[in-house]
Each structure stands twice: as structure tokens, then as C-alpha cells.
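Support request from a user on the community tier.

User writes: "When I paste my C-alpha cells into the form, the page sometimes reloads and wipes my input. The last time it worked, I copied everything first. Here is what I submitted, just in case something in the input itself triggers the reload:"
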């Protein structure tokens, strides 16, 4: 997996925004896979700024988010639809009908998965998927022990994830314990994957994902099977990586090659 060692959380957001800007320059009707959580908030702020500066347009873009809680109406402040509206959608020129999140309110939530998969297929698949990572290594809401072959489906959240995300809910407020999430196999079908991780709380998960064995116990480790996955990490999240010197040398060589060979990966 390619590892980009960014100098700070701010630089993580800038690098990711740049990857999206370059993609949209080449393919203005790209399909983006988006993530929620606190990590991508800075990325969305950068994209909004690029849009306001006239450097990026989302007019022809289609988006698919990774996951949505079951049981929260879209307008609920903790729903992921609301999160995306607040941080990105309402600030840019995205067509509302081309923004998608799994439907956590279907009468039969078991149907939400196949329905979402069909929509992704109809859009031609995801060109670039943004991912955060849970402290336990989850991606989307694919908790440890999720099948590496899983598709979009209903998933029960772990106690650790509920605890990590409790900060977003008021005291005594209903916090969903179920979500509809893209599966690991669904995520791996994206043409490019960019995983963002910032802060010391992610150091173990990042090490396990990038350098550990491929195992359902760390769902993000499945990205090692992807031919075009990049982890963009800040110094704290990179703290436990064993091969930092190597990643740094790869980046130095790559910087030297860019310009000569365009987007060359070594
Ligand atoms: C949630 C989301 C994930 C996200 C994770 C980490 O559980 N479903 O997509 O990666 O939180 O969130 P944060 O970036 O806030 O640490």
C-alpha cells in the first residue's frame, strides 16, 4: 500500500483534496465515495474552499457515502446525510439527486444493501473512495470480524465504536446500534482508495492496516489487496509504523520522477 507521510493533519486534508481535484480535472463526471467521522471534515473544508475559488466543480459528480445509521431521519443532526449536507453538499454545486447514502429507514433494512449496490453499479462504480479508519481498524462500519467478502448490508456496531461515537450524541439521546454500510468487497471495487488517518488514537489501527497481516480482525488490512490504495497519515497516526524510512524514501524518489513521467508510482 502506498503511504504518504503528511507533515500535519492539515496537510493530510490538503493532499487528499489535491487528489480529488486532479481526478475531477481529468474526469469531471467522476463517482466519489465519501466518508463521515471527524477525520474527513478538514478535507471537505478544503474542497469547499477550492470550489469557492473556482478551482473545482462538482456539477457532474456523483457521490456514494460509505454508511448510514439505521433509525435516524435524514434531517437528524447525527445522521450521516445531515453531516454531509453540513460539511460538503450544501456548499458546493453537487446535484442533490446524485448524492447517495444507504437508506437506513427502509421498512425492511435488509433490502437497503442490494438497493445501494445496484445504484453504485448503475453509476459505473466508484472512481475514488475516501476512507477514515476506526480506532479498532474498521472501515465504513465494517467492524472487526466482518467478512472480507462482505457487500453492503446491515451491521451491528461494536461497543468500542458506540463508545468512540458517543461524543456526537447528547446525554440520554438515542444512539443507533445498527447501520447500513458498504461491505469490504464493495469498498475494494473502487478504482482508487484513499485512507485518511490523523492522531495518536489511530496509530495502532494504521500499523495493523498497513503492516499487519490481512485479517478480518482489522478490516482496513483488506486494503492490502487493493492495487491502488493510498494511506495519507499525519505524524501521530504514523507513530507505530515500522517502515517509515522506506515510505519517506519512496516519496522522495517519486517527487523526483513527477514531471518526468507524470503520475509514476514506484
Ligand atoms: C465512524 C465511520 C467511519 C469513520 C470512523 C472514524 O465509525 N463510520 O467511516 O472512519 O467513524 O471516525 P473519526 O474520523 O471520527 O475518528
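"...and here is what came back when it finally went through:"
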Amino acid at each position: 500500500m502506498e503511504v504518504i507521510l503528511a507533515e500535519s493533519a492539515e496537510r493530510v486534508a490538503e493532499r487528499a483534496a489535491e487528489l480529488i481535484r486532479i481526478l475531477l480535472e481529468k474526469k469531471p463526471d467522476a463517482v466519489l465515495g465519501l466518508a463521515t467521522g471527524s477525520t474527513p471534515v478538514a478535507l471537505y473544508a478544503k474542497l469547499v474552499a477550492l470550489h469557492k475559488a473556482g478551482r473545482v466543480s462538482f456539477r457532474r459528480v456523483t457521490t456514494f457515502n460509505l454508511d448510514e445509521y439505521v433509525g435516524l431521519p435524514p434531517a437528524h443532526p447525527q445522521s450521516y446525510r445531515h453531516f454531509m449536507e453540513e460539511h460538503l453538499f450544501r456548499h458546493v454545486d453537487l446535484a442533490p439527486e446524485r448524492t447517495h447514502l444507504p437508506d437506513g429507514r427502509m421498512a425492511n433494512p435488509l433490502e437497503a444493501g442490494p438497493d445501494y449496490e445496484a445504484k453504485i453499479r448503475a453509476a459505473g462504480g466508484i472512481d475514488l473512495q475516501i476512507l477514515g479508519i476506526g480506532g479498532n481498524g474498521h472501515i465504513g462500519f465494517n467492524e472487526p470480524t466482518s467478512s472480507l467478502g462482505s457487500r453492503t448490508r446491515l451491521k451491528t456496531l461494536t461497543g468500542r465504536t458506540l463508545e468512540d461515537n458517543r461524543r456526537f450524541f447528547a446525554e440520554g439521546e438515542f444512539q443507533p446500534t445498527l447501520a447500513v454500510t458498504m461491505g469490504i468487497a464493495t469498498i475494494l471495487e473502487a478504482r482508487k482508495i484513499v485512507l485518511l488517518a490523523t492522531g495518536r488514537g489511530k496509530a495502532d489501527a494504521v500499523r495493523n492496516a498497513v503492516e499487519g497481516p490481512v485479517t478480518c480482525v482489522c478490516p482496513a488490512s483488506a486494503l492490502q489487496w487493493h492495487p491502488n490504495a493510498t494511506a495519507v497519515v499525519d505524524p501521530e497516526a504514523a507513530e507505530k509504523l515500522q517502515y517509515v524510512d522506506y515510505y519517506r524514501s519512496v516519496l522522495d524518489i517519486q517527487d523526483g520522477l513527477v514531471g518526468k513521467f507524470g503520475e509514476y508510482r514506484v
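Agent notes: The reload is a front-end session timeout and is unrelated to the input. The longest helix spans residues 9-26. The pocket of GLP is lined by residues 35-39, 66-67, 132-134, 140-141, 161, 165 (CB under 6 Å). Escalated to web team.
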